[in-house]
Structures are given as structure tokens and as C-alpha cells.
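Good morning N.,

You mentioned wanting to compare the apo and holo forms, so I went ahead and generated the holo version with iron/sulfur cluster. This is what I fed in:
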Amino acid sequence: MEVLREAKGKRTVFTCSFQIDDVVLLHMLLKENLSFDVLFLDTGYHFEEVYSYMEKLKRDWGFKLILAKPELSVQEFERKYGKLYEKNPDLCCKMRKVMPLLKSLENYEVWITGLRREQSPTRRNLQPKELIRLPSGKEILKLNPLCDWTYKEVWSYQRAHSIPYLSLYDEGYTSIGCKVCTQKPKDPNDPRSGRWGGKKLECGIHTFHKEG
Ligand code: SF4
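and this is what came out, ligand included:
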């Protein structure tokens, strides 16, 4: 993939949720002559299925996996804030996803994602390559090689390469994040309509640099 040439010889991280889009891209990245770390934002709230699938894939495919964890464990966090994901999901995402991501990104020059324009109206203008500024002032190159792929194309690639996928898809989930904020889609035409009970569209890890 042409855009990946930008990552050659640079300290590179790929943020992976282990949803099918990201796993398809991971499969492609592993075939490129690239050195990169795979970063999972481990909020502590993920489905058990995600943790076991991730570990199996790591064993079978042999990539370097880094877990970015929040400062507080789920137990400590809930003791202090209660069920923040119900009361204030924006703040919960900020503390359990965005802050650990920002800390990790300080170590890299290039950030690869599996984002696609089709996923959400908030991703409609996604470019294959963006230069973004972290709150620290550091600039990082963000690459979105699948930006113009459709959901159908992602699954065609999965089938063509017999890529193992999360069993939750067979149960009817179409977009999979933290268990407490993920339901089956309310709108069959909108795969992300089961996230956050339809109350929000983004967790903030891809929008922090656009906020004022
Ligand atoms: S998706 Fe839900 S549980 Fe996960 S960090 Fe965001 S609000 Fe918290």
C-alpha cells in the first residue's frame, strides 16, 4: 500500500481494537517490510472474547503487542467514580482511552489506524494521511490506509485470506468496543448504531486534535 511508505524507517504504532477492519489491516501490515508495534487500548471493560482472540492472534501471527492501560484499575476507578460510563461516557473515554493513547503516542513518529470514511459521519472527510498535533505540541503522522474501503470489501478480504475473526460478529454485533457500551446495532444500515446506546459517535481517540 502506497501510503505505508511514509512509515518506513520511522517509529510506528498501529492502534488495533481487534475488530475486523483492524485485523484485516494488521494482516496486510505484517506482509509489508515494516517495523511497528501493535497498541491495544486496554480499558479493562472489553469483552472476554476480545481478550482471548487478541492473545490467540498474537501467538499465531507473532506481532509485538503493547497494552495501554489507564492509571486506575476498573475496581479502583469504579470505587472513585462509580459507573462513569453511564453518567459521563465522554469523561470515561477520556480517562480510560484518550489519555493512555496520548501518553503512548509520545513514543512514535507514525500512527497507523484502520479507520474508514464509511464508518461514521464524523469520519466522512478522513484522508489517507494527516499530520496531527498532540496536546504536548509534538506532531505525528497519522496514516489511514483503509480510508476508502467499504465494510463489504473488508469482509471480502477476510474471506479471501481466511482470517479468523471475533465470534461476537456471529452473534450479531457489527461494531465492538467496551462491553458495557456495546450493543447489537439498532439500525441494520449503520454498523456503529449499537455503540454508547446511540448517545455519541466517537470515543475521542480520533477527535482530540480537532477539539478547541
Ligand atoms: S467505551 Fe464506555 S467503558 Fe469504554 S472507555 Fe468509553 S465510556 Fe468508558
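The chain has one domain: 2-173.

Happy to go through it together on a call whenever suits you.

Best,
F.
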